[in-house]
Each structure stands twice: as C-alpha cells, then as structure tokens.
Design goal:
Elements: E1 4-16, E2 22-35, E3 40-44, H1 51-58, E4 66-71, E5 74-75, H2 80-86, E6 87-90, H3 103-113, H4 118-131, H5 149-160, E7 167-170, H6 179-194, E8 198-203, H7 206-212, E9 215-220, E10 223-228, H8 230-236, E11 241-248, H9 252-261, E12 264-272, E13 275-282, H10 286-300, E14 303-310, H11 314-322
Parallel strand pairs: 3-8, 3-9, 6-7, 7-8
Antiparallel strand pairs: 1-2, 1-4, 4-5, 9-10, 11-13, 11-14, 12-13
The protein binds adenosine-5'-triphosphate and magnesium ion.
Keywords: ATP-binding, Nucleotide-binding, Transport
Protein name: ABC transporter ATP-binding protein
Pfam families: ABC_tran
Length: 331
C-alpha cells in the first residue's frame, strides 16, 4: 500500500474560552481519501477547512482522535518513527530558519541534526540547494533575513528534501508568493513528483492546483466533499462547457440541428455582416459537440469561421462544491 491512505480521520480541538468554558472545534469530521504513489494530490479548501490539521496528522505532529492514516503503508500513529523517516514536510515557508545564518549554513545545521557528519551535511545541503535552484548566484551565501519570500519557500522545500523523502507534505507552499516565484515553486514540485515522489499539497488557489495536481480532494468544514482528477471532478459535477461558434450563412435551422443532437442552453446569437456569432452552453463533451456542429454545418451548407470550446475550470467545480450545491453522496 504505497502513497497516502486516510480513512475516517476525526480531530477536534478543545480550547478554553474564558473561565471554565470550553470550546470544541471539529476540525476533521471523518476524512477519507487516498493518493497514489508518484501522484501530486491536492487538498483544496477554504480557510479553516482542516487542511493544516490533516497535514499535521500525516506528518505525525498531531494525533487523530479516531480513524487511521497510512503513509507508504506505515500507520502514522503506531509507526510514527518509520513515517518520519520517509516524509519531508513544509508547514510554514517563512518559519524554521536562523535569520542570521545563510541558507547553506541553515541546511548544514539541519542535515547534521538528521545525523549527517559535517562533511556529508555540507554535501547534502549543496545537493538540495542545487535541486531547488538556490545554489550559485550568491543565493546560498546570503543570510536568511535577506532572502525573498520566493527564496524562503524554495529553502523550506530544500530542507524538507534533506533526507531524500519519498513523500512530501507541503502545506500551502506558494502562500504569499508573487506570480513568478509561485510558478518556479510549482515547476519544482512538478519535477520532484517526476522523480517518483508522492506529494500532498494544500491550497485554495484553483489556478495553481489545476496546473500541477494529478488528483484533488476538496475539503470543506472538515469533510471531503469531492475527490478525483481535475477532469473527473469537472465532469462529475456536471459543469457546462461554453461553446462559441462564428459561422457564415447559418440559418435558424443550424441551431435547431445542433440542439437536436446535443442539449444546449443559454443560447445567444449576434449577427454582424452575414456572420453569426453563436454562444451556447452544453453538458456534452468536445467530440460530441464538434460532431453535431459539423453535421449541422453540412446540412445547412454554412461555413465555420471559428470554434471555441471552453472546459469548465476547476474554480467552477470548487465553487459548486464549496458553496453547497453539491454533496459527497454524488461522488
Ligand atoms: N490549535 C488549535 N486550537 C483550536 N482550534 C484550532 C487549532 N488549530 C486549528 N483550529 C481550528 O480547526 C479548524 C481547522 O483548522 P486548519 O488550520 O486545519 O484549517 P486550514 O484548512 O488549514 O485553514 P487555512 O486555510 O486558514 O490554513 C479551524 O476552525 C481552526 O480554527
Ligand atoms: Mg492551513
């Protein structure tokens, strides 16, 4: 059982609120999902959904109240030692470093804590800095306080890589990064997965997640509300594709023919100098829509100028799920 398997994990926080009063927050209310080995699995959800809590449980930093979780087949509770040996964790990209030491010195220090000898630690620190693109350009010789947030994020990932882990748990690794730095970190995460690592990444930015995740679990209020590949999720949620066609010589019959073979809705037609711009929404897939459009073109003898088929975005799926228009029973 490689990868990550989480089964019915529950976790509540009890905090004191004033004198004698207790407040219980159910952070995870029976979470189950799995991520195959070599996959980038994204845990996507709004603030307070339970993402960090789940990452901490998988990282053996927090005990679940009930349920069970395995990392590469090891139980995170009864085999925590084994789990720690094979994971790399990034919890907060801007914490955990000595500010007056350089990035290199920080990593040498952490590598020695992991049991490397001084010379091996230096070698390992250089290797991981190279891996994350921080070696050279004085980046590794700059004190940590002079690092940009993007460099800090990459240094955090470098630190997580010191032990060459087969599983990486990354809690919002691109939080607060600018577009360019976030792109670099995403590329790095993609490269790390290509080397065969299993990666769990959390976030709430759909655009980012869509770029790198091979599978996704959407979490909301401590529950997984949908899981699957990005494509899968969009399809299962029954989200509509937007189709834009520009045709010359089309008649009413053209649309009638299309609507006979695929269900379309919200049709808008604009005429301009003999060219019709037709916009409609369809549940059917690209091939089906193309086929029906081509058939209609042939029958009414019109000429197509342009055809655009827009897939629903992951953001559409996310909004549909998180806004409550969808429940896990459908998945
Ligand atoms: N130490 C704690 N004590 C009490 N409540 C907590 C604690 N840590 C988290 N919580 C609560 O548990 C719930 C889940 O928190 P968690 O940090 O796991 O969410 P998250 O999805 O990581 O959110 P964010 O996107 O803001 O990082 C929230 O309601 C949060 O307020
Ligand atoms: Mg969090």
């Amino acid at each position: 059982m490689r990868g990550i398997v989480v089964k019915d994990v529950r976790k509540s926080y009890v905090s004191k609120e004033g004198f004698r009063k207790k407040r219980v927050v159910e952070a995870l209310r029976g979470v189950s999902f799995s991520a195959n080995s070599g996959e980038i699995h994204a845990l996507l959800g709004p603030n307070g959904a339970g993402k960090t809590t789940l990452v901490k449980i998988l990282a053996t930093l927090l005990l679940p109240d009930s349920g069970i979780a395995y990392v590469e087949g090891y139980d995170v509770v009864s085999q925590a030692e084994e789990v720690r040996r094979i994971i790399g964790v990034v919890l907060d990209v801007s914490k955990g470093f000595y500010t007056s030491l350089t990035g290199f010195e920080n990593l040498v220090f952490y590598a020695m804590l992991k049991g490397y000898s001084y010379s091996d630690a230096r070698k390992r620190a250089k290797d991981v800095l190279e891996l994350v693109g921080l070696w050279g350009m004085e980046a590794h010789n700059r004190p940590y306080y002079a690092y940009s947030l993007g460099m800090r994020a990459r240094l955090s990932i470098a630190k997580a890589l010191l032990t060459n882990p087969s599983v990486l748990l990354l809690d919002e690794p691109t939080l607060g990064l600018d577009v360019e730095s976030a792109k670099m970190v995403r590329r790095l995460i993609g490269d790390l997965a290509k080397e065969g690592r299993t990666i769990l990444i959390t976030g709430h930015n759909m655009f980012e997640i869509e770029q790198i995740a091979t599978s996704i679990s959407i979490i909301n209020s401590g529950r997984i509300v949908a899981s699957g590949t990005p494509r899968d999720l969009k399809q299962r949620l029954g989200l509509l594709h937007r189709v834009v066609i520009r045709v010359e010589g089309a008649s009413k019959e053209f649309l009638y023919r299309i609507s006979n073979s695929v269900r379309i809705s919200n049709v808008i037609v604009e005429e301009l100098g003999g060219v019709s711009k037709i916009v409609f929404y369809a549940k059917a897939g690209r091939e089906e829509v193309i086929q029906s459009v081509l058939e209609a073109l042939r029958l009414v003898n019109a000429r197509m100028i342009d055809f655009v088929f827009e897939e629903p975005t992951l953001e559409d799926a996310y909004i549909a799920v998180v806004s409550g228009g969808y429940s896990a029973e459908h998945s």
